[in-house]
Amino acid sequence: MPIHNDIVVKRVFDAVQMAPNGTSRSDAVDLGDFAQVGNFSLQLEIRGTGTTIDVTYELSNDKQTFLTPLGAGGIVYNFWTGSGPGKDGNDIIVFDCSFARYMQVKIVEIGGGGPTITALLAVQ
Prior knowledge:
Number of domains: 1
Strand content: over 45%
Number of strands: 9
């Protein structure tokens, strides 16, 4: 099968309101159709007061059981409304991802606020 260099973008969170100290997971993203090169980035926007999040990923080969691979790094930790190059809660984070068919993005609110999250996953 030839390698495709297309970049596919999936909106994994669309202005999702999270509970303080809550956890939210995206729908499963099927990497089998477009993750040919192994490049990943997440465009992330956080809104709210007194809120901080950790963003990681979970993988699955059966689309039922999602796990964090042993030794996998997260996407970003301690991201808050003052993060990003403009200090406005917006950034694009490039990350490495282990190999599997399906991925979920997992966000954990750790700051005690109730953030609103928008995130777009780019895969090549």
